[in-house]
Amino acid sequence: MGGLVYFLFQKKTNPDHKESSYDSRSEVYWQRLQNRPEVLLGPGYPSDLRDFLETLRGKESYLWKGDRDQTYAYLLETYPDERGHVLYAVYIAFMNWKEKTGEVEKEEGLSSYEKLTAVNRISEEIFPLALRTLLFPKHPTTPPVWLLSYLEDYVQKNPYSYARERKRIFLKKKAELYQKEKWEIQAWESPMFFRQVVDLLYARELLEMSEEERTSYRSAKVEELKVDFWN
After folding, report:
1. What is the pLDDT of residue 15?
2. In this predicted structure, what is the pLDDT of residue 12?
3. What are the φ and ψ backbone dihedral angles of 229, each rounded to 5 degrees?
4. Rounded to 5 degrees, what are φ and ψ at 195?
5. 5/109 Cα distance (integer angstroms)
């Protein structure tokens, strides 16, 4: 976790981190959005904000060859009055988020869980809660991804831990992530989810078995884990 702490410390103490969420044309509107992000839910705004921003990013990159002035002009022409300015402010912040999270993804020293944690921290620092909800709506597939990444990270950092301890911390994290939405989440789980979990929990035991023993043992542990997991 040392790499993650160092990485987040760097980002936390970098004075340019949040300031780069706006430019001279968007600063006033971005500051206003901090207190009233719900304006983006009003009439005339894109219904899928994340898709709109990704599409705009593609236009800027491929159609306008990275010319930000053309992006600005396009928004003011397509969305007259305040809307064009507001959407431009969100776009600048979004592009800052893309840049910062892209740096995280390139960090070879971070595990998948550490990257998820760092990306989440950057999102919290850049966007107010209501805007984060619009850009990154909760989905039932997200908790299993976090949970599996957390277990991978734990096993990687504690290779000699026993299966009982791994299972204990896994179920504890599951309760934290799933909370009262566990039945909805269950319907979205990948068919490979429990097998991947079992392979991580019992990696040491499986390593010493023949292929036939491994298949039988894994199947039994998957069923056992399902009972523990959903009770």
Report:
1. 43
2. 47
3. -70, -40
4. -65, -40
5. 12
Q: For residues 194 and 225, is the Cβ–Cβ distance under 8 A?
A: yes
pLDDT of 16 reads: 52
Burial-class residue 2 by CB neighbours within 10 Å (0-12, 13-18, 19+). exposed
Q: Which residue has the tokens 């892209």?
A: 102
pLDDT in tens, 117-145: 999 999 999 999 999 999 998 888 899 99
Q: Write the DSSP symbol of residue 141.
A: T
**What CA–CA distance (Å, rounded) separates 53 from 122?**
18
Task: For the chain, give the longest Cα–Cα distance.
Answer: 70
- DSSP one-letter string for 168-214: HHHHHHHHHHHGGGHHHHHTT--TTHHHHHHHHHTHHHHHTS-HHHH
Residue type, 29: Y
- Answer for the pair 3, 109: CB distance below 8 angstroms, yes or no: yes
pTM of the model: 0.83
Residue that has been written with the tokens 């542990």 in this structure: 221
Distance CA 221, CA 200 (A): 12
pLDDT digit string (tens) for 141-171? Answer: 899 999 999 999 999 999 999 999 999 999 9
Residue 87 neighbours by CB distance under 10 Å? 24
Per DSSP, helices labelled H in 34-141 are 49-58, 68-78, 82-105, 112-126, 129-135
